[in-house]
Amino acid sequence: MKKNMLHILCIASLVFYISFVSPLSEMLETPARLPIIGGSMYDSTFLWGLDNFIHPFDSMKYGRVERCLKKYFSQRGIEPQFHIPVEVTYEQLALVHDPAYIELINTDKTAISRIVEIYLLRFLPRFLIDIILLKPMRRATGGTVQAARLAVRHGWAFNLGGGYHHAKERELEEGGYCIYADIPLAVKTLWREEDSQLKVMIVDLDAHQGNGHEAILGGDPRISIFDMYNCRTYPMDEAAKRCITFDVPIEPGTSDDIYIPLLKRKLKAALDTLEVQGRKPDLIIYNAGTDILAGDPEGELGVSAEGIIQRDAIVFAEAKERKIRILYLFSGGYTKGSWFNRKSGSAYVIGKSLKNVLTNIIGIGAPGVVDVPTFF
Ligand SMILES: [Zn+2]
Question: Which member of 83, 166, 208, 213 is catalytic?
Answer without folding.
Answer: 166
